[in-house]
Amino acid sequence: MTDKTMTEKTPVDDERQRDTTTRVPGVIEHRGVWPCLAYGDAPAAMRFLVDTLGFVETARYGDGDRVDHAELTWPHGGGIMLGSAGRDTAIDQHANTGSVYLVVPDDATVDRVHARVREAGAEIVVELRNEDYGSHGFTCRDPQGVHWSIGTYPGHP
Fold first, then answer.
1. Least packed by Cβ within 10 Å: which of 16, 31, 94, 111?
2. Residue 12: pLDDT above 70?
């Protein structure tokens, strides 16, 4: 790729920069990547993710304990989509598995989430620590087995 190609703006670039913001009261703007998960007990997973980790439930579709589609936004940006396993979807084969990293703004927020996770009795697989790349964080497993890493490292600019 030449320098000229790298600096030319294309119609695809315009589409990528289109505003795809989700506006949720009390939650910052959301764009980008949203991991999709399937759970054997989606309502229980949602309770843990909202009550313990701090997600905000913004959408839920389905009957009774079956979750056809749910969206949970992360108050510090982004979100996840999830549903009940057994709906004959491509992600069924990965039910109750996965690993997601959540960025928080500061050490105090990490410490608060860590305390809620410990209080909820969830398994902490990597204890609270400071990483050599500048993150303060930890990793836990939700009650159904999905790994959640919470830390301050926002990614390389």
1. 16
2. no
